[in-house]
Amino acid sequence: MSETYDIQRIKELSDGDLALQGETMADLMEKHPAFKDQILSPGIPGPAQIREIAQEVKQTSTAAKYDQTKEPWRVAAREKLLQSIRFSCQYVVMYSAHVNNPSLLDEIGVDRAHRATRSSGVKMPKKFDKFSVTHGKKSGTVKIHVNSWEGKASVHVQVCYGDPALEESWQTIKMSHYCHSTLTGLEPARRLYFRARLQNDAGVGPWSDVVELIIL
Questions:
Q1: Which of 22, 152, 160, 168 is least surrounded by CB atoms within 10 angstroms?
Q2: What one-character DSSP code corresponds to residue 189?
Q3: Whose CA is closest to 80, among 117, 122, 49, 116?
Q4: Are the CB atoms for 155 and 177 separated by under 8 Å?
């Protein structure tokens, strides 16, 4: 497993980022040929299970902040999610080999382990020249668009419900590997602020200009 995907990097994520990784992976799994319309073995976590455990990580993390006796629950939830991600990745490796399509390995939202050894030729990400947030067709939905980039990287999107000048007001809500993405479940009639940055093997780029939008 360690030769295919960079699970160690995921282990080092904070609780919030780990949960976000799980949710992003679950979104991609729903469209991935290895999981879409497939009958999975009980030992292979599907997108619904990954998403459920990611939510458990969020809940136990919050509980542990206010009650130290809940810390073992938080640790157990993290380990459960990491194990589920690992098992799902192993299944993708076997499926891609079975159908002889290596490109499927890059469609699960988890970085390949070998990418870490190629960082010498990767440049630090630049600030997005284009970053837009527009209303979606449904209430509480917005569409995110950033300019394209070279190489493999992920887009981190944050939202602010309070004062955008305060760093603690920002929270990560989306991690994507595409120029276009959609956010749902936002509270209508609220004034929100959005920003995004790019991350690759060389590091994390600067935040984009802040976009302000009243959610419909």
A1: 168
A2: T
A3: 49
A4: yes
